[in-house]
Amino acid sequence: MKHIPRKRFGQHFLTDTAVIHGIVDAIDPRPGDPLVEIGPGLGAMTNPVVERSGQLTVIELDRDLAARLRRRPELTVVESDVLNVDFAALAAAAGAKLRVIGNLPYNISTPILFHLLGAVDHIADQHFMLQKEVVDRMAASPGGKDYGRLSVMLQWRYDIENVLDVPPEAFDPPPRVDSAVVRMQPFPQPPRIDPALLGEMVTVAFSQRRKILRHTLGRWLEEHNFPGDFDVQRRAEEVPVAEYVALAQAL
Asked: Which UniProt keywords apply (predicted)?
């Protein structure tokens, strides 16, 4: 029986064989890799990945799809909302850092990225299909319109690379946006900071993008009795990730 894509789950199934092989080549799964796939759907990526790895843990919210996947002995199926999954526990069960992959639901992709950021110490790398606009923001450099809170909060912890652009016609049904595959590799020795403090600070900085930081972050720094020097005569998008990190460390 054919599965009808469910709009409430943001389901767009990848069908282009050339694109699928390009993604799997970018992932480069090896036998025994502790791979976890988010949203396997109809198995477009699942099948070629498990052919190379031999085993795979899949996280699927759709109960009908999860039931189909359970018929395959090489798959470990976690039927759950990915935002409720404990990736640290999965890594502990695997005895190794995880390799996380998936065609993420575009309607909740940012919450998923931040959920995984909380478990980043247990992750070896991540390869995701996302809306291209989101990938552009993730990988953006300072000074442009794409550079923002998402850029800073991910780039302080990951090396981020767009490895493949994917057109809408590669999916069924086609989404209304272009897509891209992003590679995210956690830095082995990240700076020591309080991520919650960095998050609060960056949220304040980008709360009014068009204003100079004196009106936003400057006031926040005064409230936190920051004794040092920081140039607040700039807009938030002009400040490099390293400066935000250094400021969080100084606080």
From this structure: Cytoplasm, Methyltransferase, RNA-binding, rRNA processing, S-adenosyl-L-methionine, Transferase
